[in-house]
Each structure stands twice: as structure tokens, then as C-alpha cells.
Amino acid sequence: MCQTENAADAEFCRLCHAKLPDPAESPIPKGPETGATGGETAPPARGAPVSADRGSQMPDWLARLRQEVTGEAGPSETAPLSGAGDDLGWLGAMPAVAGEDEGPPPGEVPDWLGASAHGGTSTDEAAPGADVPDWLAKIRAKARGDGEGEPAFEGESAAEPTPSPTPAPLPEPEAAIPAEPEAPASLGLPDWLLAARPDDAPTVPPPSEPDRPSWLMGVTDDGSGELPRVPALVFDGEGAAPEPAPDIDLSSVSAQVPDWIGEGRPPELADRSDLAPATLPAWLEAMRPVDTFRSVIEIESAEDQAVESAGPLAGLRGVLLAEPVVAMLHAPTGKAARLDVNERQYAQAELLHRLVEEEKREARPRPAAKARPSVLRWVVAAALLVAVGVPGVLGIPAMDLPAFAPRDLAGLVGVVDAIPTDRPALVVFDYEAGATGEMEAVAGPFLSHLMERGVPIATLSTHPGGSVLAERLMALQGAGHNYVRGEDFVHLGYLPGGPAAVQLFAASPRQAVTSGFLEEETLTTIWDSPVLAGVAQLSDFTLMAVITSGSEDARVWIEQSEAFLGEAPLVTIVSAGSEPLVRPYYESTDPKVNGILSGLTSAVAYEQRLGEPGLAHSRWSSYGLGLLVVEVLVALGAVGGITTGMFRSRRR
Amino acid sequence: MPVQIDPVLLETLGTLLAAVLTVMVLSYILGDNALFRIATYLFVGVASGYAAAVAWQEVLQPRLIAPFLNLNTTQFGAGPFVTGVVVPIGLVGLLALRLVPGAGRLGGLPVALLIGVGAAAVVGGAITGTLVPQTLAAMESFSPFAIAPQTGETGIERMVNVLLVLVGTVGTLAYFGFGVRKGEEHAPRYGWRRTRTPLGAINIPWPVFPFLGEVFIFVAFGVMFAGALSATLLYLTERVQFLASALQTLLSGIFPIA
Lengths: 652, 258
Hints:
The complex is a heterodimer of chains A (652) and B (258).
Chain A: H1 60-70, H2 84-87, H3 89-93, H4 111-119, H5 134-144, H6 155-159, H7 191-195, H8 259-262, H9 267-270, H10 282-287, H11 343-360, H12 375-394, H13 407-418, E1 425-430, H14 436-453, E2 457-461, H15 466-478, E3 489-494, H16 498-507, H17 509-512, E4 543-548, H18 551-561, E5 570-574, H19 579-587, E6 595-598, H20 599-610, H21 615-618, H22 620-651
Parallel strand pairs in A: 1-2, 1-4, 2-3, 4-5, 5-6
Helix pairs in contact in A: 4-5, 12-22, 14-15, 14-20, 16-18, 18-19
Chain B: H1 7-26, H2 34-69, H3 79-96, H4 108-137, H5 155-175, E1 191-197, E2 200-206, H6 208-254
Antiparallel strand pairs in B: 1-2
Helix pairs in contact in B: 1-2, 1-6, 2-3, 3-4, 5-6
């Protein structure tokens, strides 16, 4: 109850929405306006009857209190409560507020208090003074103006066992705290409140009748001018410890008492079998904090309660904290956060936890799983090795030599046959060491043809290792034609710089190349070699041949040297893989290449034409059988792929 | 005093080492293994070392160091001295500045010169040596009396060949046409359109030239793959024959035939 003044016909408080007593059934107590001390909440007379009807609307002790104060008898006094005469005696034994032990001195009772007392129904007539606590009797006496009375509290009254309205544990009395010896007429009020107390009680006249709202016109007024209110029940901690309350039947007042009071019911009443147990929805049951539920409210003792140190409530104990409890720092209770999860949710939470933990860890490179070579790979390798190795080692089976020479070969042979032999031919070795297996076999007959004709040869390379490969092939082919390095052929060596260097060499060979590879020590420069006698520019070479395994090198030499060659023919000896990209330079209307030689077939035909079986012939059988095996494997692979695709499409 | 090594022994050791390295490389047939890796690492290292040695022996020493060391007072200020000694050394010094923090931009000058000259040489050669001649080659006469200069083709054979070159050139250029209409960025280069013919309704690619260009590209790649396969087979043949020859040489040395 918030002590808010409400309309007479209101059922609920407009501020705290508490249910208000019906003014028609329960007359408003006409006692003086209460303060925080609750002086008007005097204990009822012992043995006062309690109305059973009212019991459903207000507690019995409150009804008796009202009867005590207002003198109004209950409508029916049929069933006196067992032990009712002692039920509220503890209120009288409650520790006295400072200055309340003797009551206010005579003459200091405020008029407003006296007026309130007189304005209402006389309570001293309704209840004998013996049944009224002393302190209340004193207040009554003061209200009547006699000012005589005995001290309100005696020592025995404080020690007198008092019943408690609830069986719940109550705060221990603050017996250790001494009461203030002198506080006349304070009634337990703080000083600041007393200072603000009005000197004349009814300074504010009651509102006149015309001022009342229309909805309040029908409300019964007792003439006191007071709005209906509900007195507050305040428990003071001082005094002796309250004894456990006697058995009180709270069933009749359960509708109004809070739950914590209702828990004090006798077990036999709480466990009534005729009541259906309440059922909670599953989702609500899952949300219920089972472990943290406390059925018993533990109230701190008065000693443990903090004393307000600031603000208008300074000096009071047990006041509510201004700061919400939830905002205060406190140790978290682990049990309160426990959730009811199922196995699937737990697994997902574990998975998420594992993912987060893995992210924190430094990723360690996992060793790559070694791919097992398939059996098919071994089969293909074995087939190729046997097909290539057996003819080379045993000489069987011997593959037939090509019956027809490629058409390009005739043009190349014609070019070589037409060149003059008084000037050297420039042969460019632009391939790497890995391509010697093919390029030596293909270029061998070409070089052999030049040597057969006695053409001096000058080698050059734009690859660092090209000069070594040139020396190797020239030594191999020159052995059969008595070609000697320095006399019949020379190595111009390495030409660094890529396309720009090629262009420079095409424009000015002597400026681009200053020193040769494996040149004679007696020579000042490679151009002093008798092989290069009379050569000052590119067109002075009788022929230019490019032996390369890649189309890029061939293209660079064709593009950069074409303008400087003059009448000298340009031939290319290229790998079979790059032939399609070089052939357009040969077959165009204005050919940039005058002869082309590519592939082992052309080389074998060349050797046949020269009548000098060489490297191409020695590798023909192995190459032929190996090529046959490759074709068979390709065909089998194609058939297998098509078959697999058809099966997969059928499965789909 | 240089150590004299018997050339025959040196040749034998070289052949044996080459055979062992060949076997180590061929062991990749069994899968990736340590022997294969050792052989490949050895080849890469030897090739790099040899390239560095060649660069020093044939480029740096004779063209940069030797002219600087053989200078005499009469050559100062001469044209060959400036272009052959001063300018190269200056460019090398600028290139070395790329390693110095804060002065790396100066090193961009020789790099720009190198790239610019190289690009100019390549582009100029490509235009005069490839682009124009090949474009003209795609526009040859359809006259049946014309004769190809290199192959001697004439008549129908040459006409078919010229037609194939023309269609292939136009089709390939159409396939690599990257211009698309707005809203058709993800549309295929060509689609299939059902067309009525005297033989019935058939699906034909439309536009047709990108389709033909794709076909020509497939054929060209197929031919290049066949040539590469043929070359690779020749590499294998040469190595197997070398192994057989080396083994025969070693066995004949160990067990000489009386």
C-alpha cells in the first residue's frame, strides 16, 4: 500500500494498483493520519472477534485494528480466531521508536492529531483501555487532552512473547541498538519530518462540496473530509525477538496475503489432493531457473541491514537501495546461467567451440598427401619403355623407312644445293639441352649436307648453353666430314639481349659479337678467323639457318633478320611441336622462310636422300614403334572415355 | 700445375654420371621421390651456374671489365669509349641503385631503356615480319592458275587451301572478338539455330564464324599437341638408347670380350 489518496469509489490504487477496500462495506478508519511510525496501527484488543466475512477482504488483525480504532463492531462475530487475543500483541511489544517510550508531553499533541481523533468515531469507548497497548492508550489520552498516561513501554512488554502474523522468519530485533532517550513528541519521525510538520493541524481546509468532481458526489462522506486510505503496516526492528507465530488459519485471507505468507500454511492445507496441480507449458518450464528458485525468502537481520547514509532516508535501516541490484557488481552465480540443452544443441555448441579454437591456433601446413601412382600409369610407362627400348637394343622389330619424302624437303635440299660455298653459313642453335634428342636427329642431316658441300659454318646462340650444344653437334657431324673447329667452323658464342640483340646482330654482326666460344688464342677477335673472312654484315653469310625447339625463337629471327638478309636464304629446323606456328612463314605468297625441316620423318628422308644414315635412322625404329604404342594408347583412352561417359549418362 | 685427367676416363665418368642421372629422372615413373628431386635440383643448379659463368665469360668480362682495364689516355673522350665503357658502366650503376632504399627510382632508367628498346624491336619486327605478311597471305588470289611459290600447289588444291586459310583467319578473328552487346555479357559466342534445309530442319551454329574459328583453334592445338608428343617420344628414344649404349660400354669395359 502506497498511502496514495484515491477516490472513494476506486477499487484499485491509482499509483500502485493495489486493491483498495470497499468503502461501502468497510468504513474508512477515521484515525489520525499516519506517519511512518504507524502509530495508528495499534494492536487490537485481545480476544476481539474477527468477522468471517471480512476475512476474505482484509486480514483479521486489520479488522480488529479498525474496530479498535473506529469503535465499529464487526458485522458478525461468529468465529473467534483461536488465540486471536494474542495474535497482535507482538505489535505492542515491538521496540519503541526513539522518544516514543513516554509519548509526547502534555500539550504538545498536535491539533491535527487531536482533531482527527475527535472527528472520527471514539475508539476509547469501543475498546477498553486494558485491551489497548499502553502506547496507544497514551496516544488516545493525549488526543483527549488529559495528557496523563503511563509510559508506553515497559520492560516486561518488550520481553513479552508476541505472536507473528507469519511463520516466515522475521528479522531479529535490534536489541543491541539503544533507543534514543529523549525524543518528545517525535513519534519516531525523523527530525527533518518533524521540522516540516505543520503547526496547526488542518491548515488546509477540506475541499468544499462544489469543488468535488461529479464522480465523487455519490461517495459517502463521514464528515471528516479525509479521503479513504489504507493504513500502512510497518514493522520496526527494535524490541525483543518475535516468537514464532501461533497457528493461524490463513486460508481465509490467502487471497490478499502475499505468497511468502501463503507458504506458511499448514502442510495439510497446502497438500490438498482435490486441487489439480498447475501445469506449465514446456517452453516456460524450460525457462524456469529451477536451481535458483528459493521458496523461502531470507531476510537479513537488522544488524546486517545497511544504514542509509545519505538522502532523505538517512539513518534508516533496511531501506531499498536506490541503485538497482542488477546494476551492482556481484559474483555471478553459475547455476543461474545453466541452460537445458539437448544433445543436438550441445553438439552444435561443441562444433562452434571447436571452430573458434581452431581459428585461434596457428595453421600448420599439413604435409601433402602423396598421390599413389595408379597402375595405369605404370602400364603406360612400361609399354612405352619396351616399345622404345627393344628396337634400340635388339634391333627388332625394324620399322620400314618412309617411302615418300615430305614435299618441304625438296625445297630445303634445293636451297642448300644452291648456296655458294665461299662464304660461311650462319647456323643459330637456339634450343636447350633437353631438346637435343630431337634437334640433333633432325638437324644432323642438314649440317651433314652443308659439310658435304664444304660450306664453312659459323654458329651462334641466344641461349647461354647453345654454344656447347653447337660444339657437340658440330663435333658429331664434323667427324664424318673432317670439319675442324677454327678452320671449317667457328662459334660466335652467346648473343645476349633477346630480340634487340638479334636486331643488332642483323644490322651489325661485328659490333654485336666481339668474342667467340672456344676461339683460337692467336686470334684478336673471332672475326679474324678465316672462316669469317669477308663477312661484315648479315647478308654476307651464304645462308642463315635457325635450329630451334620453340616457335618464339624462330619468329624473332625471322622478323628481325628478314630485312638484313638480302639474297641469303633463311631456313628453319624446328621441333615438330612448333612447326604449325612456323609454317605460315614458309607457305605464304611472300615467304619469309625459304626452307623448313621438322620432325624425324623429314630427317630420315633427308638422310636417305644424302645416303648417309645417321642419328635419325638409328632412332627410327624405336620412334616408330613408340609412336604406334602411343597411338594405340590414345585410341584406347578415347574409347574408354567415351564408354565411361555413356555409362555415366545412363546412370543419370 | 693443372691436373691431367685421362680423357677416356673423363668420358667414361661423364657417361656413367649421365646414365645415373637419367635413371634418377626416369624414376618419376614410380612417383615423386627423392632421386627425382635430387636430379632436377642438380640440373637447375648446374644450368644456373653455367649461365652465370657464360655471362661473366662472354659478356661482363670482355665487354665491361676488359675495356675498362685496358684503357689508355688516348681513348678518353673517344666515341667508342663513351658508348662502350662509360654508358654501360653508368647504366649498371643506376641499375644497382635499385638495391638502395630511397634511390630505387634511379634504377628505373636502365630498366625503362631495356624494356622500351626491346618492345620497339619486337613490335617493329612483328608488324613488318608477321602481321602484314600474314594478312596478305590470307588475301591470296582464288585464281586456279596461280601457283604457290614454295609448295607448287595450283588448281583446285590451291583454291581449297586458300579458302581454308581465309575462313580460318576470319573465323579465328571472329572468335576472339570480345565486343558484346549491352546485357549480353554472359551470352555464348554463338548459339544454335534450327534452320530448314532441303534435307530437313537442322541446327546450325549462329553466328557461324566464331564457331568455325573455334574449330580451327581446336585443330591447331591438336596438331601442336601431336607435334609435342612426337618430340617427347624422340627425347625418350634418345635417352633409352643412351642408357643402352652406356650399359653396353660399361659391361664391355668390365667384361672385355676376348
